[in-house]
Design goal:
This protein has about 230 residues and is mostly beta strands. The chain is built from three helices and eleven strands, in the order βαββββαββββββα.
């Protein structure tokens, strides 16, 4: 990931303010990336937790059934990449800026190579009076759940369809949800965990957030919703 501040090496700080204050509270232009996602965090009973969604299974959605961060494509009316992230957050899980503590911070931009798309990544903590996230559109989101950071300590090997074909990849399996690929890599990087993806080539390649747009894949890419 090309980030505004590097993730710390080794074990990441445990306190939410320490995790978030590594990154600036800035509003990058929409030209930074073609989509945006938000890492929403909260203090769980035993560990910091990350809000994730599971996409509804649809034949027209390349991300069908995948676990992802709330987010999606930039719209023409979005005044900034942050506006994209906040709009998608409300549309998918019902959270607004008022539900977040201190506002989102810009972590950086990374390529979701499966979709040939540069994605802006933001992070924020759920406020003490923030509403509980919920499914806002069953057509796009099937479930919302919280993933404890401790779950990332265990790696499973699962078979998934990738840009290199049907192959075995690293994954985190939690309560039946399978987290892998772009979303897992972004979350592990945010928490300062070492790179673990073993596939070489474009699937896990990072690029500058200011790199030009990439041509779309043959299937047209995601249709505006979250990215796995």
């Amino acid at each position: 990931m090309s980030a505004s501040a590097p993730a710390s090496e080794g074990d990441a700080p445990r306190a939410l303010p320490d995790l978030l204050h590594r990154y600036p509270a800035e509003t990058p232009p929409v030209s930074t990336a073609g989509a945006a996602v938000t890492i929403v965090l909260r203090e769980g009973r035993q560990a910091i937790e990350t809000l994730l969604i599971e996409r509804t299974e649809r034949a027209t959605d390349p991300a069908s059934g995948q676990v992802a961060l709330p987010g999606g494509h930039v719209d023409d009316g979005d005044g900034s990449l942050l506006a994209t992230a906040l709009r998608e957050l409300e549309e998918e899980v019902g959270l607004t800026r008022g539900d977040l503590r201190d506002g989102p911070r810009f972590v950086g931009a990374s390529e979701a190579s499966r979709f040939r798309l540069v994605v802006g990544v933001f992070a924020a903590a759920l406020g003490p009076d923030g509403r509980a996230p919920s499914v806002r559109s069953a057509d796009e989101v099937a479930h919302v759940f919280w993933l404890p950071r401790s779950a990332l300590a265990t790696t499973a090997r699962v078979h998934r369809e990738t840009v290199q074909g049907y192959t075995e990849v690293n994954a985190t399996v939690f309560e039946g949800h399978v987290l892998w690929g772009f979303t897992r890599r972004v979350i592990r990087d945010f928490f300062g965990l070492p790179p673990e993806d073993v596939l070489a080539g474009p699937l896990f390649a990072d690029r500058s957030p200011h790199a030009p747009d990439l041509p779309p894949p043959a299937d047209g890419g995601p249709d505006g919703g979250a990215l796995p």
